[in-house]
Amino acid sequence: MNGKELITRAMRNEDLPRAPWVPYTGVQIATLKGYTATELLTDADKLFECLVEARRQYSPDGMPVVFDLQIEAEVLGCDLLWADDAPPTVKSHPLAADPTVPTKLPTVGDGRVGLIVDVMKRFRQVAADTALYGLFCGPFTLASHLRGTDIFMDMYDDPDYVTRLLDYCTDVAIAMADHYIAAGMDVLASVDPLVSQISPDTFEQFMKAPYTRLFTALREKGVMSSFFVCGDATKNIAKMCETGPDSIGIDENIDMVAAKQVTDTYNVVISGNIQLTVVMLLGNQMDAQKAALEKIDAMGTRNFILAPGCDMPYATPPENVIGVAMAVQDPAAARARIEGYTKADSGIDVELPDYANLDHVLIEVLTIDSATCAACGYMRAAADDMEKEYGTRVEIVEHKITQPENIVRLGKLGVQNLPTIVINGKPAFVSIIPTRDELSKAVAAAAK
Questions:
Q1: Cα angle at 277 between 53 and 81, to 5 degrees?
Q2: Cα Rg for the chain, rounded, in angstroms?
Q3: DSSP string, 94-131
Q4: How far apart are CA 71 and CA 88, in angstroms?
Q5: CATH 3.20.20.70 is right for the domain spanning 355-447
Q6: CATH architecture for the domain at 3-338
């Protein structure tokens, strides 16, 4: 049974001989050939070259062709900020000034869509036995790219507008899916990090109808589907399942065993959620194998696909990804190798600020990385708005867990989920992006 067959049988809810393995190969694969993230995402030949090498080294059963949530936003008028070691980020929001809902749908001739479709077709030819994932930006995150953080206030002030905007963004998602289906993709995945940042009631009000329409359309087109969310989406797992995806992808913020108890009731496959930073980025190969085996043992071989929690950071050592593949394919050998292994203590300590004696309000934004995580980016943007409002009376600091000392900082602050806003040492908004008014009130209360 090849990888594509294994993924297909997983999506059909069958018992399998082993867990399927899908490394979320984002910009990390650029390092396999010495390219920057920008080169990877703007040069078809380099992207194709890196995909072929990643498939050779990582032995995936399935893999995405590209992991970039800004492709649609760029086509629709958002300016992007490019980086050498991360996907681009959105730096302008065209609907912030003029909220008129657009009508344009992306074509293969727009932006980088044609480049991606070309690579998909080429890679399909050489990866016939691998399940290929076509990832597109989910409706809510795309709406946020277009509107900016104002969309969170819009949900209170003008819910009809948000409904219209999400309906349009769903049309964009379906259009992108059509391009990717035509290019030979097997699994169409809506990646919507911001779904973790809203309540179940808000999901029911705004997201259920568009997402049900999206997954119904994909099912009618005869393709497999996935609903990928970042952050602590525990509260919305059941709501996500109710929209009808074949699978759900989650990150390390979620207790996967508990989440699978929910997804199994809907007969939905769950995918994830090896820790990106502690294991894949900052660990070694034995850490990666240990994490993979623990996940496999806990999850079983039905309705489960092993994967990292999200797209792997640029600097993730290739040997760690290879280690996971080895654990999947030969678990007995991996178990023998890590027997008795314990990860060494980092020896890192962090001194926290003297919160009780601050002469200003300190807003600490604890993130995966606001440059690569959409939910983290919008939470950082919400905090930055306070600097505009309060000036020097507030200080904004971001702590990224891509830096080892900030993993220690999370523990000292008692923060378990990301992104989180901490105000004067107290977690204030945990995996929920506040509106401008909510955050302003919290800052004002802390200033007293």
A1: 70
A2: 21
A3: HHHH----------TTSTTHHHHHHHHHHHHHH-TTSE
A4: 9
A5: no
A6: Alpha-Beta Barrel (3.20)
Q: What would the DSSP string read from start to end of 289-333? A: HHHHHHHHHHH-SSSEEEEESSSPPTT--HHHHHHHHHHHH-HHH
H or E element that contains 420: strand 420-423
For residues 41 and 63, give the distance between their C-alpha atoms in angstroms, rounded to a whole number: 16
Q: Where are the domains of the chain?
A: 3-338, 355-447
C-alpha neighbours within 13 Å on the C-beta side of residue 373: 31
pLDDT for 377: 86
Residue for token digits 């997402």?
A: 211
CA distance 323 to 317: 10
Q: Do 3-338 and 355-447 come out as alike in CATH topology? A: no
264 CB burial (10 A radius; 0-12, 13-18, 19+) = middle
- Is residue 448's pLDDT more than 80? no
* Sign of the dihedral through C-alpha 417, 423, 425, 427: negative
CA distances in angstroms from 324 to 25, 97, 292, 295, 407, listed in the order given: 13, 46, 6, 11, 22
Q: Is the pLDDT of residue 6 over 90?
A: yes
Under 8 Å between Cβ of 401 and 366: yes
Segment 244-265 shows an average pLDDT of 96
| Residue 11: its H or E element | helix 3-11
Statement: the pTM of the whole predicted model exceeds 0.85: yes
Contacts of 441 (CB under 8 A, 6+ apart): none
The band of 417, judged by pLDDT with boundaries at 50, 70 and 90, is confident
pLDDT single digits (tens) 162-204: 999 999 999 999 999 999 999 999 999 999 999 999 999 999 9
pLDDT at 343: 83
What per-residue confidence (pLDDT) applies to 330? 95
Nearest by Cα to 135 from 184, 190, 92: 190
